[in-house]
Write a structure and sequence with these properties.
With 345 residues, the protein is an alpha/beta fold. 42% of the residues lie in helices and 18% in strands. Bound molecules: zinc ion.
């Protein structure tokens, strides 16, 4: 380990110790996904609360049980399960945990119908992604392959019944603390962060992550039909507005859904803003050279990426194209159902 890695690991341990002093413990649960482990957080309070759970797998459950045991608890002790957002690495195990413990399940009010019928909702999401990919120039065979990939991931999720729907801005009262519920859409439409008022610790899930930029993934708006046509959601603009809100907060520590705690959230958010502006400028130059589809732009930037990355890179390009559309430096044109971006004027 290099000296810098050593120092970073030491800092992470100190921050986790600080969170533990406030009764919040990180449980890093394995996932089969590229992102690696997902962080669940146990809050030792009354009710005994678990934020997120890991994916629906025996390995995740086994490690979660061992992590709980190391803190003197078991699954059956959990009294409140909170779901941070709609991605399966965060909530897949929730139904099993809720059944075994009898815990209440809390999530953003508008996320509850999605969690109740996960399979059907994911079908709609897949149709949405399919429409969007074809519209933005991704070849039909790639689109078909991606649908199969999505179907193969389905088993790591599971439907779960929300018993405590949370309104944005509302408060969850525990014996020793109050968690403020804040909706911060962008990475997904349902991203919810929780502010522990007494310690100024923000439980941020995937809204802000230290070692990777949270992808503002294009997603079907909650409750919407899969064919949104020209009204596609503007995930990056939404995400940046959410980051502005978080940037304005006084926080002692941010506990993310993956990786290590974040001490200086304003510096990290500024770094993200800078990166997005730079990437938008790069895309603007490609569009100025010749009109292109989002897929052609993605290929210019990243070459022929793996099939599984096609939707991710499309989200990246469209997000930054939205920044340019807002500035008025590019325009969007459509012919035969295919969208191209061109320099304006
Ligand atoms: Zn996520």
């Amino acid at each position: 380990m290099s000296e810098q890695d050593e120092r970073r690991a030491q800092e992470a341990r100190e921050r986790l110790a600080r969170a533990a002093e406030a009764g919040i413990h990180r449980l890093a649960i394995p996932t089969p996904f590229q992102v690696g482990r997902v962080n669940a957080y146990l809050i030792e309070d009354s009710p005994l609360t678990l934020i997120d759970s890991g994916p629906n797998s025996a390995k995740a459950l086994d490690e979660l049980e061992r992590a709980l045991a190391s803190l003197g608890h078991k699954v059956e002790d959990i009294e409140l399960l909170i779901v941070s957002h709609q991605h399966i690495d965060h909530f897949g195990l929730a139904s099993i945990l809720a059944r075994r413990s009898g815990a209440e399940v809390a999530a953003l009010d508008r996320l509850a119908p999605f969690l109740a019928s996960f399979g059907r909702e994911t079908d709609l999401d897949d149709s949405f992604a399919q429409n969007l990919m074809l519209r933005h120039g991704i070849p039909a065979d790639v689109v078909t392959a991606l649908r199969a990939v999505s179907a193969s991931f389905r088993g790591w999720g599971s439907s779960v019944q929300v018993t405590q729907p949370l309104a944005p801005g509302s408060e969850l009262r525990l014996r020793d603390r109050t968690l403020q519920v804040l909706h911060r859409p962008g990475h997904s439409p349902s991203d919810t962060v929780f502010l522990d008022r007494s310690s100024s610790i923000l439980l941020a899930a995937d809204h802000l992550i230290a070692h990777i930029s949270s992808n503002p993934l294009l997603a079907r708006p909650l409750g919407a039909e899969p064919d949104v046509g020209a009204e596609r959601p503007q995930a990056l603009l939404t995400y940046m507005a959410s980051l502005e809100q978080t940037r304005a907060m006084e926080l002692s520590l941010v506990l993310p859904g993956h990786g290590d705690p974040i001490l200086d959230h304003t510096a990290l958010i500024d770094k993200r803003f800078h990166m997005h502006r730079r990437r938008a400028e790069k895309i603007r130059r490609l569009i100025a050279a010749e009109p292109r589809t989002a897929h052609e732009i993605a290929q210019e930037l990243w070459g022929n990426v793996a099939v599984t990355q096609a939707f991710l890179t499309l989200s990246e390009v469209l997000g930054h194209a939205d920044l340019l559309l807002r500035d008025g430096s590019v325009v969007e044109t459509e012919a035969d159902g295919i969208v191209r971006f061109a320099e304006s004027g």
